[in-house]
Amino acid sequence: MKYFISIYSYCILFTITLLMSCSPNKSIEKEQPENTQNDIIKKIIENNFNNSDSLYIIPNEEKTWILYLSEKKETSVNPVNNINFFVFDKSTDEIIYQNKFSNAKLKWLNNKQLLLTRYYGIIDTPESSNIKSFIIDINSKEIQEIKEEKNKSTI
Questions:
Q1: Residue numbers of the domain that contains 72
Q2: Cα-based distances in Å from 62 to 2, 90, 104, 108
Q3: Mean pLDDT, the chain, as a whole number?
Q4: CB–CB of 103/80 below 8 Å?
Q5: What is the pTM of this model?
Q6: What is the pLDDT of residue 131?
Q7: Residue 101: how many CB atoms within 10 A of its CB?
Q8: Over the stretch 10-61, which tens digit does the pLDDT of each residue have?
Q9: 3-state secondary structure the chain
């Protein structure tokens, strides 16, 4: 019996020593969420656009900037379309220009400028004076109206 207690004590002592001397080999790293470009864009779209609106994603020719255009189509109740848009720089993962307009269409003019066409009042003909075009310079953030000179011919 004495022998049994001695072996029992030795086993307990060995187990305690073993447990005390062991340290975990795993290095615990904090998991940080990786903000990928897609995650950033999804958050921006959720914050700025309505889910019910049409969303268009249009890169410039160099594919360095991307135009995200949300358009609320006209309905019989609201005969005015509304556009909300931003230009996203892929290299910096930032919005570099943002704006919204009513009764308008928007497209890339070149790599650094957008062409905005606005419709005012009732449009009688395609040459109506109620249609105005503007150039939006993304770098300077300036909007300049394009003044069209009408060709006047004399007989």
A1: 37-146
A2: 87, 11, 25, 11
A3: 79
A4: yes
A5: 0.67
A6: 86
A7: 17
A8: 667 666 765 666 655 544 444 434 457 778 888 888 888 888 788 999 999 9
A9: CHHHHHHHHHHHHHHHHHHHHCCCCCCCCCCCCCCCHHHHHHHHHHHHCCCCCEEEEEECCCCCEEEEEEEECCCCCCCCCEEEEEEEECCCCEEEEEEEEECEEEEECCCCEEEEEEECCCCCCCCCCCEEEEEEECCCCCEEEECCCCCCCCC
Place of tokens 């503007």: 134
- Expressed in angstroms, the distance from the first to the final Cα of the chain is 132
Tokens 């848009």 correspond to what residue? 85
Phi-psi region of 103 (alpha: psi -120 to 50; beta: other; left: phi over 0): left
What is the count of structural domains for the chain? 1
- CATH code: domain of residue 90: 2.40.128
Rounded to whole angstroms, the Cα distance separating 99 from 82 reads 11
